[in-house]
Write a structure and sequence with these properties.
The protein is α+β, with helices and mostly antiparallel strands and 354 residues long. It contains 11 helices and 7 strands.
């Protein structure tokens, strides 16, 4: 048995064992969900599972189904739509250039045929003996000229249609990379951007910072006031965060009530200051119910900050930002913690255990 196959069997067995401990049925969907968690390829999924463990809450099939739709199906759908749109965009570009070139060729041929027709007319007047023969040739060249003009018009119409189609494809691509609720970038867009920005940071030795943010007590707020108000909270947070970034910065809804901000060319200190500015801006906004104008009070967010280190993989950077975020949660929420506090906190915990 190959090492790869053996590894797959071990992951599947571990998934089944975890399902058994949680009293969940070992369906294909549940096994896939936990194998993805074990594989470490979906940090947002792992965090959602960890939240259940931390509060010692049972994970039922309903919760497992929600996590599968959120972290597996939607991510795959966005990836497939984006890939399809990219492929179609390339094919449209090739066709557009081909038609454009054919239109230029058609116009040139039409001009050449027109010039030839005039030359033949002059020759027929100078040499009457060949006039009849040349008249036939002139008739043919005029016919070809008209056909070329018709082709030119048809190509122009096709070019307009393809331009419209290209705009539609660009819209589809944008939608595939955007979160439909908040309008900011989605998880797929974030995954593509962090790989690209890490590669740039490696080449230029420029800093790259990552902020992970989580809305405090969102589940309680959502349960108390309803999903529509909860959606309003997420849109508000996205709006405030988006207003505080600029340039090449990228804000994405990472999953659920969690957001991520990628900050190329930004040091840890500056990223920490930006995160705290965002935190204070969110806290300063009072929330009201749209229909009744009932005052719902304020909301807060906790934030973790980390920066790219040499030879980091993207999951290492995300993990440090995540650890900083959880430390912010454990310190009472509504605060910003960066990766400089992770090691002292870990050493303190180890000393306490010893």
């Amino acid at each position: 048995m190959s090492a790869k196959l053996e590894n797959s069997y071990q992951k599947a067995q571990l998934s089944i064992s975890m399902l058994k401990d949680l009293n969940l049925e070992a369906t294909i969907q549940n096994i896939e969900l936990f194998m993805i968690h074990i594989d470490g390829k979906a940090p947002a999924l792992s965090r959602d599972l960890q939240k259940f463990y931390q509060i010692d809450q049972t994970i039922g099939q309903h919760e497992a189904d929600i996590m599968y739709r959120t972290h597996v199906m939607r991510v795959d759908l966005a990836r497939n739509v984006g890939n399809l749109a990219s492929t179609l965009q390339g094919e449209i570009d090739d066709l557009f250039h081909l038609i454009e070139q054919q239109g230029i060729n058609s116009l040139q041929n039409s001009d050449e045929l027109g010039g030839l027709s005039n030359q033949l007319r002059q020759s027929a007047e100078e040499f009457p003996a060949v006039g009849a023969l040349l008249e036939n040739v002139i008739t043919i060249t005029r016919k070809m000229q008209k056909e070329n003009q018709a082709l030119e018009s048809s190509l122009a119409a096709s070019t307009n249609e393809i331009s419209s189609l290209r705009r539609n494809v660009e819209t589809i691509q944008k939608e595939a990379l955007s979160d439909p609720l908040t309008g900011v970038s989605n998880r797929k867009s974030f995954d593509e951007a962090i790989d690209r920005m890490i590669e740039t940071a490696q080449e230029t030795n420029e800093p790259l910072a990552l902020i992970m943010a989580d809305v405090d007590h969102f589940k309680s707020f959502n349960d108390r006031w309803g999903h529509q108000t909860g959606d309003q909270v997420l849109r508000l947070v996205a709006e405030v965060m988006n207003a505080n970034i600029k340039g090449q910065d990228l804000l994405a809804r990472y999953g659920g009530e969690e957001f991520a901000v990628l900050l190329p060319g930004t040091s840890l200190e500056n990223a920490h200051m930006l995160a705290d500015r965002i935190r204070r801006a969110v806290e300063s906004r009072r929330l009201k119910k749209r229909q009744s104008s009932e005052d719902l009070g304020t909301i807060t967010i906790s934030m973790g900050v980390a920066t790219y280190r040499k030879d980091d993989a993207c999951n290492h950077l995300i993990e440090r930002a995540d650890q900083s975020l959880y430390l912010a949660k454990s310190r009472g929420r509504n605060c910003v913690i960066d990766e400089r506090d992770i090691e002292p906190e870990r050493s303190k915990q180890e000393t306490h255990v010893a």
